[in-house]
DNA sequence: ATGTGGGCAAACAGCCGACAA
DNA sequence: TTGTCGGCTGTTTGCCCACAT
């Protein structure tokens, strides 16, 4: 319960180590956290979107902005800790970022640490709860393949075969369940203990529960609440406008003084990740050709917690918010989606979220060249292998296409040669 | 559900009018809201304390401050709306403030509006719940005097006498209770309907429930949760440091541009009120003599929701936070309390919270005079009657002592002649 | 293979006065 | 005057299977 101060790093001993595989399982297959010690790009715009989504309030047009705060900040990622809300079990991550000055940006940066990859656990299952599962009338019906894969085998000499399962959640609480194989036809059920869990976690039909059997032969249990109307944030403390200003002020101050700041990333509340590995950002923005009319694909999470690809076409390129955030790469690509059910997919994406399909030739003459195709504050990039780029996100499951390598001529039309990656102006108000 | 924008005033029609007397009853007898249209003093320091209390995190010593933001801002209070958290029923108020520039401060300000005084309702009772009250085993035992005072009389020709009570809460929800007079000896009880209320409001022994019978012959019901360890704010959205910065940035920006800003005041989470009627502030700071060793009294809320006086002695006068908030009147008075059980009473108070007792003579020579006893940005003050000062707080239940009137020579030692009440410097970062 | 519903027993909720503080 | 308890129902919980999809 030690308070973590501004700019302080949490001592190693006090780092409350949530179970990483359970955290990632709850966060979903598309969520990846950048490696500690690596360089990242922080987008205040995206952070602001997270606050807007959590408070259910859009940023007001009259809210002032910080001109000294650039749309993207190159930072050293000093610390990442995984957390879960004590009440709702909502997962979130706390990151300590430190903006780099132009000197530091010039230093060659190390290949990303070979930290544990954020892969989803192998021995797990995730089930969306039915009305019967959540009713007080009965227990939980375990899908047969799931029970056989992740639960310890039952002793079928008993009649009926049953055992006690003990599972731990993100807060390291124990939950005991009676696992029995009975009925006509036979099936796996969780009976005693199940309803306590349902009411404690406030689960309703449509929410999901997931079980993991890990390498240490421990059973882990996690939940994912369905996208309910909204977790209306208790705004009884601070107005959403103040929160918005606070996030900007914290980043602007950190940028001006090159000091550390702390942010929270809430993957299931947040429309898009806003702390991106620097290598992934550079690859997408400087090494990838995109143009209007180009086809692309992008990954989405399915209802069953797996991943699928959606296809679309780029319909425009330009600033999402020219007044407040000019020359930002955040959601700079306007897209149309192939499938008519695409109503819920966002009409704007960022370059690092998509994989352009370049199966047909591109005529370079269509795209004006930048005066400064490679910003001066960045190290040379050739000679790095793709595996070194710290891109352990599922997006990397794509095979790289031929356009990914070498120095492409430009990022996209409409950008001037402004010095985006330089350190920001001195923040004058502090 | 219309989003209230920054600097926008909520249209009259959309103002969700919570029942004012119920709100005040839940807020407690010491809480008063300044009158709409009046002038107030806003203390960012106190606002910051509210955030710290809500997030359970002290402000870190490295958190930067806004030098352009003065410790106290004189504001026009444009709007006050009462709210209650949908989940916890926690009451809070939203206020729209507009800092006044020095020109506006010079204009004579109107006597405070004769708005509805914030007096506690007369026909009400408040009971702290016992284990039996909250147990599922039984109902609610109504104190006899309370039942006779606020509930409609029972028809004692019935055997047993009983009736159905319908009470409305802050969200205008209806709650039905069976009110019966039975047992040996006879007593008033709420039976059917009570346990539904207890579980819906998550009441436990030690929490309080209150009933009001108002002038419109309506029965109102409210709750007050005991000071549980803490309502640990879901910090999964924004770090407490960012919240702190946000509050400062919002105030600083508003001060620099003389534009409106919105704050939330959460009386039961907040250590002290931080939006003070200007007249009350001026009276306490400029018209009242205080000195070290002086005795004073101050009001506190009792466990039974009434008010009582505690006595103490002033032990010091000076800045609470000289580095961050020099020359602030916020909690500028160090005090010692008479009663040994005073461990929970704060060691620092603000001048407007206390009533100094001047039954013995003071030697003016002990206190250095200010070079500028009356700041230039303020109107002359004489000729106003005390009732016009907008001090409808219970603190005004004190009788004014002779020192309250006329221009006393000073406020307190250690203050220089700095121009506190002038408009702040231009805020440079926006 | 698995969601839902009827049957049934055990547990709990909830109304009552007795008793004591 | 009022907090807690034992006694006594009525309702709910929760385990079992049958049956349907």
Structure description:
The structure is a homodimer. Chain A has helices at about 20-25, 45-55, 100-105, 130-135, 145-150, 195-200, 240-255, 280-285; strands spanning about 40-45, 70-85, 90-100, 125-130, 140, 160-170, 175-180, 185-190, 210-215, 220-225, 260-265, 275, 295-300, 305-315, 335, 350, 355. By secondary structure, the first copy, chain A, is an alpha+beta fold. Chain A has a 7-stranded mixed sheet with strand order 4-9-10-6-7-8-5. In chain A, strands 11-3-2-1-12 form a 5-stranded antiparallel sheet. Chain A has a 5-stranded antiparallel sheet with strand order 16-15-14-13-17, with no helix packed on it. The longest helix of chain A has 18 residues, at about 240-255. The two termini of chain A are about 30 Å apart. The model of chain A is unreliable at about 1-15, about 115 and about 360-430 (pLDDT under 50). The first copy, chain A, binds a DNA duplex (21 and 21 nucleotides) through helix 4.
First-residue to last-residue Cα separation of chain A: 30 Å
- Largest sheet geometry of chain A: 7 strands, mixed
Work out the oligomeric state of the chains in this entry: homodimer
Report the helical percentage of chain A: 10-25%
Number of strands of chain A: 17
Question: What order do the SSEs of chain A take from the amino end to the carboxyl end, as H and E?
Answer: HEHEEHEHEHEEEHEEHEEHEEEEE
- Give the overall form of chain A: elongated
Uncertain residue segments of chain A: 1-15, 113-117, 361-430
Strand content of chain A: 15-25%
Protein structure class of chain A:
alpha+beta
Number of helices of chain A: 8
Gyration radius of chain A, in Å: 24 Å
Mean pLDDT of chain A: 78
The largest chain-to-chain contact, stated as pair and per-chain residue counts, equals: A-B, 61 and 59 residues
Strand order of the largest sheet of chain A: 4-9-10-6-7-8-5
